[in-house]
Amino acid sequence: MRITNRKASFQYELKEKFEAGINLLGAEVKAVKLGHADLTGSFIRIVGSETYLINCKIFPYQYARPEQYDPKRNRKLLLHKKQIIALKTKTDGSGLTIIPISLYTTGNLIKLELALGKPKKKFEKKEALKRKDIERDIQEALKGNF
Fold first, then answer.
1. What is the rounded distance in angstroms from the CA atom of residue 117 to the CA atom of residue 100?
2. Is 40 within 8 Å of 9 (Cβ atoms)?
3. Which residue, among 107, 76, 83, 95, has the nearest Cα to 17 in the 3D structure?
4. CA–CA dist 53, 70 (Å, integer)
5. For residue range 123-133, what is the model confidence (pLDDT) as tens digits?
6. What CA–CA distance (Å, rounded) separates 47 from 132?
7. Are 12 and 119 a contacting pair, CB within 8 Å?
8. In sequence order, what are the residues at sequence separation of 6 or more whose Cβ sits closer than 8 angstroms to the Cβ of residue 76?
9. What residues does 111 pair with on adjacent strands?
10. Strands 97-106 and 109-119, bridge-based pairing
11. What are the backbone angles phi and psi of residue 102, rounded to the nearest 5°?
């Protein structure tokens, strides 16, 4: 199962991608494998020498006990120390942010794909929408001719 953050590529210009493990509880693992998670509005913050996924919503597993479960809790990401240092140096001075792109399973492991992104300006978003509309019109015109 692959859960994607659709708004990430629209709101940010993605530069460099990374893969990280994520520290989850047992019921959260089952919920993610069923696809019950939402990455919209989530981001990654580096605190000291650790990285955390903030504002990611993993809905409660249907058959688990929902007592004292917070779907928006901060989850620790599992990265090498060199990767954390590299991310921190790239984000500090350049105005880049770290955005989660997708959450997926590889075998028994759950991985998070994250990227360095530069926020797009409002006019860049409008241009992207115009380009998408023009491409859609061209595709419809080509289908009509054949």
1. 10
2. no
3. 83
4. 14
5. 888 888 899 89
6. 38
7. yes
8. 22, 23, 50, 51, 52, 53
9. 21, 104
10. antiparallel
11. -150, 160
Each residue's pLDDT tens digit, 73-130:
999 999 999 999 999 999 988 889 999 999 999 989 999 999 999 988 888 888 888 9
Distance of CA 94 to the CA centre of its chain: 20
C-alpha to C-alpha distance for 126 and 23, rounded to whole angstroms: 37
Instruction: Quickly list H helices, 1-121.
Output: 6-11, 26-33, 81-94
Tokens of 133: 């509309």
One-letter amino acid at 54 equals I
CA atoms of 124 and 37, how far apart (whole Å): 29
Q: What tokens does 38 get?
A: 């939402």
User: What dihedral do alpha carbons 42, 46, 51, 55 form, nearest 10°?
Assistant: -20
Instruction: Quickly tell me which residue has 């797009």 as its tokens.
Output: 120
